[in-house]
Amino acid sequence: MDPTLVLRPPVIRRRRLPDWKQLPSPHDLLEVSVVMPVRDEARRLPAALRSLAAQRDADGAPFDPDRFEVIVLANNCSDDSAAIVRRFAARRPRLRLHVVEVVFPAAVAHVGHARACLMNEAWRRLSTTGGRSGVIASTDGDTRVDPGWLAATLAEVHAGADAVGGRIVMDADADRLPALARYTCRDDVYQRLRSRLEHEIDPDPIDPWPRHHQHFGASLAITTRAYGHVGGLPAEPFLEDEALYQALRGHDLKVRHSKKVSVVTSSRWHGRVAVGLSWQLREWASLARAGADAHVVDPVAWAEEIALRRRLRSAWAATAPRSQAAEQRLQRLAESLGVPARWLAKRVAAGGPFGTLWREVTTRRARTVPPPPPVPMRDAINAMRLLLARQRSKADARAGRAGSSRAASR
């Protein structure tokens, strides 16, 4: 061998953005663009793709394949994930399934950047077909969507939702540690009670009970109009889905947590993000081994804050000239919120989205109102049950008074 010959490893081109030019043009009837970021998902990817190929409409017939497409972004893979997608697409020619490979630089090699790239491209493609009525639907390579996932999502959008969070259930692997299964069940009870209590205190017309609490990347859909309105998905290294949800709320866009939209996702502990489902499972497993309970926000303090939010919403929604009594009520509300009364009066008068106002209020409130210490989840569940019982008693009393008034007026 020539001693002057130097063997160098192959050069891997790293890109901040995928090369979308290799995708075919969108079909004229395209209504939904399903996006799926994938990184080393060879084991779970076939099941995820089969679930998308098996979509049914509201009548149970196969979902029209011309109305949706699936775009997989295989980023920084060391396995044959991309090849699996290509083989699957070859066997299902009617399914409009596309895959693009990319190697991101280390600084942006995270799911937030990958999902943002996908959703931005989906928005661009849908803008040429579905326009403002198109829907971007996100899922993951370790997730199996329900056969009616697309149809149920579109039904919620047609009912007025700007975005739809689907119910995410963990697969059976979560039961491999019995104590961990108890934690996941307890968290499910806690979140269900929390959603119900919020509905009772400050109901949302577009997101009524029954509902759930999830709006995460494994099942999250958004209209192209809403996506453009908030400026796209924040490319955060983790919790990018939560950041998008907060942006939607900040613009008063309508988010539905639909129990009719559901998926099953992997319960693996070793994820690829610093904070996410896998991180949560590891935390619960650690608590289970120590025999400790998870701690959550004090539900009494949280319920009081939700009640204050409802009062502030009423003040914000008032359009008539403010009376002296209304100004006094707003001043008392400012005191309860722990924010300057003059500042609050100016902000309410200025208008704008309520979500933005509430975010500013909570930011200022945090400077003066110390957060209550967290409480064990068991105690929180018991407390929320008591709070719910009180809310129902109040509602029954109001209904009784209203019934007596109607009877007296006859």
Number of E-state strands: 10
CATH superfamily (homologous) name of the largest domain: Spore Coat Polysaccharide Biosynthesis Protein SpsA, Chain A
Average pLDDT metric: 88
Radius of gyration: 25 Å
Strand order of the largest sheet: 3-2-1-4-7-6-8-5
Strand content range = 5-15%
Structural class: alpha/beta
- Please describe the biggest sheet, giving its number of strands, its sense, and whether it closes into a barrel: 8 strands, mixed
How would you spell out the order of helices and strands?
EHEHEHEEHEHEHHEHEHHHHEH
Unreliably modeled segments: 1-12
Named at the architecture level, the CATH assignment of the largest domain is Alpha-Beta Complex
End-to-end gap? 107 Å
Helical region count?
13
What does this structure look like?
The chain has 410 residues and is of the alpha/beta class. The chain has two domains: 26-294, Spore Coat Polysaccharide Biosynthesis Protein SpsA, Chain A (Alpha-Beta Complex), CATH 3.90.550; 299-368. Helix content is 47%, strand content 13%. The protein contains 13 helices and ten strands. Strands 3-2-1-4-7-6-8-5 form an eight-stranded mixed sheet, with helices on both faces. Helix 2 (81-91) links the parallel strand 2 (68-75) and strand 3 (97-102). Helix 5 (178-201) runs parallel beside helix 9 (299-317), helix 5 (178-201) packs parallel to helix 13 (377-409) and helix 9 (299-317) runs antiparallel to helix 10. It is globular. The N and C termini lie far apart (107 Å). Residues 1-12 have low confidence and may be disordered.
